[in-house]
Amino acid sequence: MQRLEWVNTNGTANGDPTFQTGSEDCWIEIHGSDNLAWYHADADAVAHKVGWIIAGVFALVATIISTVHICNHLRHYTEPRQQRHIVRIILIIPIYSIISFLSYRFYREAPYYTAVRDCYEAFSIAAFYMLLLQYIGDSTAEQKQAMLSKRGLKWTFPFNCFKMNPAGRRTFVLLKWGILQYVVISPTNTLVTIITHANGVFCPDSMRPKYAHFWVAVIDFVSITVAMYALVSLYRVIKEDVKEQKPFLKFVAIKAIVFVTFWEGFVISWLGSNNIHVIKGTKYWSKDNVVEGLTALIICIEMVLFAALFIKAFPYQHYKRPEGTYRTPMRRAFIDSLNFTDFFLEIWFHLRWLVAPITRRYPVEPDVEKGRFGKMDINGAARYGIDKQTNLTMVEATSDTVPLRLGETTHFSPPEPAYASAAPAYYRAQSNFPPSAQ
């Protein structure tokens, strides 16, 4: 399909031409430059500048609030299995804020920014699902054990006529795959959006099957529906077991940020459609530009409210370490939270499990914790606690020591060097250490 582009001879009020770009009957009107409004001083230009300033201020405030919130979790990184998912969830606030601000300023590239934003949304939803699982147990075996008492429950509407076995292997895997499929499909949709929009065959204002936007929208809708169904189903099963963590507030925060942004974008686009004509173009912005800009401005404002809600929903005080104890360096904690290898290992495991009935080879559950903090010496082992990579086992506990997990703290500070003195009193290394350390 040939890509066409020409200048609308009707022009605009100040003589700057409006460009129409697209293919065949799919045309998007855009002005010739993102900078048209910024070099004029009339009322229309001032309105755009004011909106840009408002979007920037709210985006900056939301980003600062979320950054401080994330830093507090990284400073008290005592439960990496849980907090890495919390950091990933909170990151959706600055990502939404910054991308929405860029969409307002550089409105011609807005579809590309929006596609990237929607891609990360999938990772945040998956992170929340994994966080709920961590609340009931560190390992898959512990999680299934916690669900053994949930037999006899029914599936969530509209399949509530069927009973579910949450502890069953098939049910557990299908629920997790219901979330992980969104992590696969959403980046794929993002890539398709970028490629097709660059070639003029995406057509975001059209829902005709001949354009990529129709298929991307349908696939994304089905994928996120399945993901949210799996999330709701898990929440119904474990909500009583994790009520101390206030899962309802967390669930509302995640669900609100997804559905509010989706439906307001849908409504604004509908108001700007050719059949309604409520939203119209201005001297410097076409109707499509106004729709993108208005959506971005509203999201920037809302992100401040969501940032405040996330502080309440995901507090760091629960993980706060005592003063004077060793803490995981913030840099290492941040790298760990951005290490998405656990997601990829889970995806690969569940893909293999789905074909296992055919191959008759069921895969082994992946160890998503192995090697996340890299190789550690005995000092690192003493500081971070039991690490699966070095296979350490606590053999003696005194009033000065506490059995630890990765990221937890201890008042014990091993001297230098630690191999000959500190290690025998507290740990027996089953492997990876010299005999003198045992």
Notes on the structure:
It is globular, with a radius of gyration of 26 Å. Strand 2 (18-23) and strand 3 form a beta hairpin. Helix 2 (80-90) packs antiparallel against helix 4 (110-136), helix 4 packs antiparallel against helix 6 (169-198) and helix 4 runs parallel beside helix 7. The chain has helices at residues 43-75, 80-90, 92-105, 110-136, 140-146, 169-198, 212-238, 247-271, 287-313, 330-337, 341-354, 356-359, 378-384, 422-426; strands at 4-8, 18-23, 26-31, 392-394, 427-429. 35% of the residues are buried. It folds into two domains: 4-319, Rhopdopsin 7-helix transmembrane proteins (Up-down Bundle), CATH 1.20.1070; 369-438, no CATH class. It starts with a strand and ends in a 9-residue tail after the last strand. The strands form two sheets. A three-stranded antiparallel beta sheet has the order 1-2-3. Mean pLDDT is 71; it is low at 1-24, 27-34 and 374-438. It is built from 14 helices and five strands. It is mainly alpha-helical. This is DUF300-domain-containing protein. Keywords: Membrane, Transmembrane, Transmembrane helix. The chain crosses the membrane at residues 52-74, 86-107, 119-137, 179-202, 214-235, 247-271, 291-311. InterPro entries: Ostalpha/TMEM184C. Its main location: membrane.
